Amino acid sequence: MGTYSTATDRKWQKRWEETGLYKFDRSRTDKKLYCLEMFSYPSGAKLHVGHWYNYGLTDSWARMKRMQGWNVFHPMGFDAFGLPAENYAIKTGIHPQDSTLANIATMERQLREMGATFDWDYEVVTCLPEYYRWTQWLFLQLYKQGLAYRKEAPVNWCPSCNTVLANEQVVDGRCERCDTPVTKRNLTQWFFKITDYAEELLEKLDALDWPEKTKMMQRNWIGKSVGATIDFKLVGSDEKITVFTTRADTLFGVTYVVIAPEHPLVEKITAPAQKRAVADYQEFAKRQSEVERLSTTKEKTGVFTGAYVEHPLTGEKLPVWIADYVLASYGTGCVMAVPGHDTRDYEFAVKYSLPIPRVIRAREPGVDDALPFTEYGVLVGSGEFDGLTSEEALVRIVERLQREGKGAPKVTYRLRDWLVSRQRYWGAPIPVIYCDEHGIVPVPEDQLPVLLPYNVDFTPDGQSPLAKSEEFIRTTCPICGRPARRETDTLDTFVDSSWYFLRYPDPRNEREPFDQEWINRLLPVDKYVGGPEHACMHLLYARFITKALRDGGFLNFDEPFTSLTHQGIILAPDGQRMSKSKGNTISPDTYIEQYGSDVFRLYLGFGFDYTAGGPWSDEGIKAINRFVDRVERWIDRSHEIAAGGGRRAPGPAERELNRVRHYTIKAVTNDAEVFSFNTSIARLMELVNALNKYDQEVTEKDPELVAAVTRDLILLLAPFAPHFAEEMWERLGYPYSVFNQPWPQYDERALARETVELAVQVNGKVRGRVEVAADASDEDIRAAALAVGSVKPHLHGKEIKKVVIVRDRLVSIVVA
Ligand SMILES: [Zn+2]
Ligand SMILES: [Zn+2]
């Protein structure tokens, strides 16, 4: 049995702490490396396997980079505001501040026990006034830059959580947190104008070293479409209906126009005879959720308004309908219906017996282009544009509309502005005051933070809990000094996490959120690691805030995270997602108690493809435990070999051991760089095998080589098993600390395998020579021998009866 245990962990954690081993060196920014994991939400009292997988292995990567000479900045903190703590408080009566701070204390201790290189001098906790003061400052900068604004808008409302949800927090029409169907409500809300940055957010994705899938998700989320706006004049009125379309090539196929039931134009244009039907339909539409309305499988419904528009090019009279498949909040709230070439419009036209003409046919004859035909093709029934391809027609038709003042090219984005108001308690108060005389007045920066009061009734009832605190609301107008009221909404927690990486380098700065000169030297984050579930919220918001602060003159870089890696998910042993309700969770503490934290970390590294994850296995961790024991036995054995003395001239066995050594250095260096920890650790196991093989097969050994290879083994293992490696390093007699050693370098020349030259005989006569690897297989040797140029003519037209291989000497080919 090996000696490694949690006692070893504690011994080295204490030493690291005492010697300040992981303190960031602020003087060396020339080789800085900012390595960051997405900080955690202190919702539970303990670290779970997911935390370990994310933080433990990213720490291994950071340790390797440190040994490679990088000045690694590796901070840690807590995303401490938000709904879970508030909901927990509602359930248990424990104040969110108390439960959050208690959880943070526990998690901090556990993170220290992980033995990670976090420099706690730079800790950030978003729910503390010293932090959220600057979150409020951020809000004020955006307000000054015209990027924060207030408007009444229908918002997603979770009736169970009693709060507004961002679009991103609605999953399949349900609340992301509690799965309740989401409804709509009109509220005056604060928004951040992320849409101003839609194009840059899209464009700058290309150059980022991010997973392709994540970039694609952001592209889809931003949803750029290049199209045109087209005006349809109302018959007998000066009003017009403007639509947005990406398919102007189908303009001659328009047979009706549809507007959203809640569109303000509806009241104006509805013919008296249709008023009753339209009003009934509006009532009906109000009861549908947005998701139901957009569902492709739902039967289409609608009502004729009695109004008509003119086709902009043909002048034909087209009826105007209202239908709930068009939403007022998307595009212009009006669409031109082309039933021949749009599936939704087709279903609607069939149901209400509207005409369905063809204006596009397939490019190739014989291709099925039955209506509705939604592909690009060639124009027919489109007047002067007949015969053009869709691509050509898109340009030419919009050109004509533009000449006649009936339309214009237009780019649109699916991205909506970011709704940041929350009617909840546990968040940063929005730093705004309302004065009867002066309207919206931002809180002066020198009066920040607007403190979140402790004693507030936060039982959810749809109102902002802060609205119930007279003490909080009542204030004076900073301009006129007369009584005024504070904003009672708090900020979405995604605002807190949209800039935390900017606070880490300078977390105790009381004059400003960060020192500009310093932050511009330390940022951007070089490596960011976290879950793929943040692809469209956190990661997009952080990019937006970085750009907004750049334009505010605070930052000199465009993107916050140069390189991004997503870890996979560790599943329960049954292959299911771990959950408390299923009772299939793995508790890291139990395993760490039994095996030590390095065995736990090594198993997470070895047992899974980092970006994929997979099911937990108790057998796997036992195997890793045996490997650690095996390394320790080898360390002791290497002492005996050193004590044995003697030395022989290096021969093939030494060259082979040296080859495996350099091959291991190369493989671990390259694989760990790209977070391929499982293959890195597999190579280390092979190196231990090679050492044992050498020991068993060679009687008179080379102690210097054994010592050098053993030293490299511990250096390479150190990032993955930091406490154990430090212990073995000490046992080998080297000075503290293994982490102050340079990372081993490989020698390309040593990588070549030993080769031997073999004579090649044909029917007993030497006809050539061939060089092969010393450990080449019989098959490879045979193939190499048969391919030798001087041998081939002697085989021509003959049948090969037999090939005999005499290792290290010759290949004998018998032909007839
Ligand atoms: Zn909910
Ligand atoms: Zn005033």
- End-to-end distance: 62 Å
**How does the overall form come out from the CA principal axes?**
globular
Report the uncertain regions: none
The counted number of beta strands is 33
Largest sheet: 4 strands, parallel
Which small-molecule ligands are present, each listed once?
A: zinc ion
Q: How many H/I helical runs?
A: 25
Mean pLDDT: 93
The helix content is 25-40%
By helix and strand content, what is the structural category? alpha+beta
The gyration radius over C-alpha positions equals: 35 Å
Strand percent estimate: 15-25%
Give me the side-by-side strand order of the main sheet.
2-1-26-27
Overall description:
- This protein is α+β, with helices and mostly antiparallel strands and 816 residues long.
- The chain contains 25 helices and 33 strands.
- Strands 2-1-26-27 form a four-stranded parallel sheet, covered by helices on one side. A four-stranded antiparallel sheet has the order 6-5-9-19.
- Strand 26 (527-530), helix 17 (538-551) and strand 27 (564-566) form a beta-alpha-beta unit.
- Helix 1 (6-19) crosses helix 24 (722-731) and helix 19 (597-606) crosses helix 20 (618-644).
- The longest helix has 27 residues, at 618-644.
- The protein is globular.
- The mean pLDDT is 93.
- Bound molecules: zinc ion (2 copies).
- One zinc ion (ZN) binds next to loops.
